[in-house]
Amino acid sequence: MSTPTRQRVLQHLDHVGLLQPAIHKETHAPSPDEITNDQYRAYTRTVHDVGGERDVPITWEEKEEEIWEHNTFVTCEVLAWRGVWNAEERRRRQNVDVGQTVYLGLPYYGRWLLTAALILVDKQYVTLSELHEKIDEVRKRYE
Amino acid sequence: MADKHKPAPMVDEVSEFEILELAVRELAIEKGLFTAEDHQAWTEYMHTLGPLPAARLVAKAWLDPEYKKLCIEDGVKASLEVGIDWINQMPTKFGTPSDYCNLRVMADTPKLKHVVVCTLCSCYPRPILGQSPEWYRTPNYRRRLVRWPRQVLTEFGLQIPEDVEVRVVDSNQKTRYIVMPERPEGTEGWTEDQLTEIVTRDCLIGVAVPKPGKTANDPRPVRKALKPYSH
């Protein structure tokens, strides 16, 4: 990477690093004069493109898998096996369309699960009402 | 009182994720998008996966220079010799539905150490290595490894000398990687089975190197699941 390119990339990553606290600022939807081109580029990047962003060391853990996490993985794979979605749309939905808050805020498979629910509605395999009714019905089983 | 025999209310015992997972799966089956048998078949397929085939591939390559050449040239073909067929083995019979069928085996040398990441998501060669560990999927690992690889490797207990190049390979939708580490000293005359035992999952990702007598990943804190799935 040439030096100016590298500098531009590092500068971009610095801006990206500022987005998270910005989400909690009181000011929302600022007027155009409050947004620089650098900020615009940081906001409009795809949120999964995290390589090179700053972060602090963490404890590396091995995590046990929840039953619902395993089932979610399998459901997503089987939906693809049976042609409901392909790899490209899965990726765009799970990694990009969810937005930064959900991307960083939900568990890994939580994001997958949300996307699997949305694909059924978006492709009109179920209506939003059917989805809500099913969720209510499942919830009642546990009451 | 009859009520005494009712189970206690399960406050907070069922998560929204569990409810939604069941709802989505049941709706998909009711609408005929897939069958319960499909779901079961994929679960059973997942049970067959793990890092052992990849470990055996490395051990075989240490013992057979011709096979090592094949591994580097065509990882998918080399996988056949350790019992992994990237196309026909999975229930689809057309490969992974995540649409990848290209394995590259990155051979370390005394002056070059490879380590694998997926900065964009968590791409991982599941057919030959099983499910990825949670730390591999964290934004933290994906953010930092490409920029500060030596520091991150140190956190995994692996110090790479300054005169050894560290090369980070970034997985993507179509191509997955495993690392073929250097065969360690002290393993002269070992059999393929013996060598396979020391090639741990972490060695294959590149955050560890094999050592005689070390047959498991470094111990790390375990985050317990509320309702664990047993593989």
Structure description:
The complex is a heterodimer of chains A (143) and B (231). Chain A is mostly helical. Chain A is 63% helix and 1% strand. Chain A is built from eight helices and one strand, in the order H-H-H-E-H-H-H-H-H. Chain A is globular and about 55 Å long. The mean pLDDT of chain A is 90. Chain B has two domains: 16-47, no CATH class; 50-205, Nitrile Hydratase, Chain A, CATH 3.90.330.10. The longest helix of chain B is centred in the N-terminal third of the chain and has 15 residues, at 16-30. The model of chain B has no long low-confidence stretch (mean pLDDT 93). The interface between A and B is large, with 62 and 68 residues. Strand 1 (62-63) of chain A pairs parallel with strand 5 of chain B, so a sheet runs across the interface.
How many helix segments of chain B? 11
CATH class of the largest domain in chain B: Alpha Beta
How many domain regions of chain B?
2
Query: H/E element string of chain A?
Result: HHHEHHHHH
CATH architecture of the largest domain in chain B: Alpha-Beta Complex
Beta-strand segment tally of chain A: 1
**Quaternary organisation:** heterodimer
- Whole-number radius of gyration of chain A? 19 Å
Strand coverage percent of chain A: under 5%
| Low-confidence region ranges of chain A | none
Helix content range of the residues of chain A, please?
55-70%
Corresponding CATH superfamily of the largest domain in chain B: Nitrile hydratase alpha /Thiocyanate hydrolase gamma
How would a textbook summarize the main sheet of chain B? 2 strands, parallel
Radius of gyration of chain B: 21 Å
Rough outline of chain A: globular
Q: Are there runs of chain B of 5+ residues with pLDDT below 50, and where?
A: none
Mean pLDDT of chain A: 90
